[in-house]
């Protein structure tokens, strides 16, 4: 049997063998199916339901097309420059770096980053995304997986991107009629388990960028009934995460990590919100505001209720060195 080099079993973290219809974990006696080169570790539990034989609505298709530019922008204008800065600062070898986009959606980020020579993997727990990924160039680096049970060994990734995921964990969402959402009783335990799993696969000294709409800001531009529509919400709604909540989840995890809120400057083009008059009105002001938020003392605002969108830079302490392989490059990252 050939052992698969990229993935481990998400249940037991053991090595897997390549079988005729998928990846086999001999310890758990499970076969994870692989189709079109894409492995599926969901065991049938998806975030969504999508039947490829039924056609998408015109609005849904338009939304997916619209998403592509935003995906490119997120990487090319925001995360790639951050990664490049770290690589240059510590003279890190590009070919040794591994990146995970957890909740990678349409998978464009994985194509874009791999095309720059950065070995990048993406996961999402979605049947729709799995269907979309068949058209990605680097589809072999995309897998269907639960963010709380990742198919990767400890300390694998030097950088992890995770956009708009945490708010969907530990809540029940209702999409029929007006959008509504309710927190589950074990929401905090689920979100802590999710962060703990991300820190497990993050290399010591590596960086996790967690971004999400801010629960401490009363308007949500990302989960309205229509794309880009503003949604007013109560500050105790229990859906969107707040900086303080994420700090408390981190403090409950054994792996030591530090958190720094960052400005979302250049993360968005405000295209979707620009469909509405209020979006067009605030767009230029938001650009100026987010730019200011990059520098002290305005940078203090990045983690507060005065910032509509959180970007939290979470660094895993380098003391937890798992392998020699990672320690050299990563201890350099730590010397900031
Ligand atoms: Zn297993």
Structural features, described:
With 336 residues, this protein is an alpha/beta fold. It is 29% helix and 24% strand. A 12-stranded mixed β-sheet has the order 1-2-3-4-5-8-7-6-9-12-16-15, sandwiched between helices. The chain has a two-stranded antiparallel sheet with strand order 10-11. It has a two-stranded antiparallel ribbon with strand order 13-14. The structure holds zinc ion. The site of zinc ion has 7 residues, from loops.
Descriptors for this entry?
single chain, 336 residues, alpha/beta, Rossmann fold, twelve-stranded mixed β-sheet, two-stranded antiparallel sheet, 7 helices, 29% helix, 24% strand, globular, binds zinc ion
SSE inventory with pairings:
Elements: E1 3-8, E2 15-18, E3 22-25, E4 30-35, E5 38-40, H1 58-89, E6 98-102, H2 108-115, E7 119-124, H3 127-133, E8 142-144, E9 157-163, E10 171-174, E11 180-183, H4 187-201, E12 202-213, E13 219-220, E14 231-232, H5 243-251, E15 257-262, H6 277-292, E16 309-316, H7 324-334
Parallel strand pairs: 5-8, 6-7, 6-9, 7-8, 9-12
Antiparallel strand pairs: 1-2, 2-3, 3-4, 4-5, 10-11, 12-16, 13-14, 15-16
This protein binds zinc ion.
């Amino acid at each position: 049997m050939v052992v698969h080099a990229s993935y481990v079993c998400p249940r037991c973290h053991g090595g897997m063998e390549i079988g005729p219809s998928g990846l086999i974990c001999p310890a758990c006696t499970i076969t994870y199916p692989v189709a079109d080169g894409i492995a599926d570790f969901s065991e049938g539990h998806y975030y969504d339901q999508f039947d490829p034989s039924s056609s998408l609505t015109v609005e849904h298709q338009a939304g997916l097309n619209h998403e592509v530019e935003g995906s490119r922008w997120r990487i090319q204008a925001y995360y790639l420059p951050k990664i490049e800065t770290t690589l240059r600062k510590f003279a890190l070898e590009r070919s040794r770096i591994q990146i995970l986009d957890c909740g990678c959606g349409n998978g464009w980020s994985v194509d874009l980053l791999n095309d720059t020579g950065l070995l990048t993997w993406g996961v999402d727990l979605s049947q729709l995304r799995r269907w979309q990924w068949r058209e990605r160039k680097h589809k072999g680096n995309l897998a269907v997986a639960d963010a709380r049970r990742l198919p990767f060994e400890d300390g694998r990734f030097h950088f992890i991107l995770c956009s708009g995921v945490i708010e969907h964990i530990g809540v029940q969402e209702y999409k029929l009629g007006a959008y509504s959402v309710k927190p589950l009783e074990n929401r905090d335990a689920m979100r802590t388990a999710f962060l703990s799993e991300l820190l497990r696969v993050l290399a010591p000294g590596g960086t996790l960028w967690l971004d999400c709409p801010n629960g401490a800001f009363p308007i949500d531009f990302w989960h309205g009934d229509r794309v880009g529509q503003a949604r007013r919400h109560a500050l105790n709604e229990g859906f969107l995460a707040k900086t303080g909540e994420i700090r408390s989840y981190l403090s409950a995890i054994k792996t030591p990590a530090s958190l720094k809120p960052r400005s979302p400057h250049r993360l968005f083009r405000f295209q979707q919100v620009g469909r509405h008059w209020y979006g067009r009105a605030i767009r230029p002001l938001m650009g100026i505001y987010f730019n200011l938020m990059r520098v002290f003392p305005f940078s203090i605002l990045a983690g507060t209720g005065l910032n509509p969108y959180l970007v939290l830079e979470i660094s895993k302490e380098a003391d937890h060195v798992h392998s020699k392989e990672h320690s050299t490059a990563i201890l350099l990252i730590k010397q900031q």
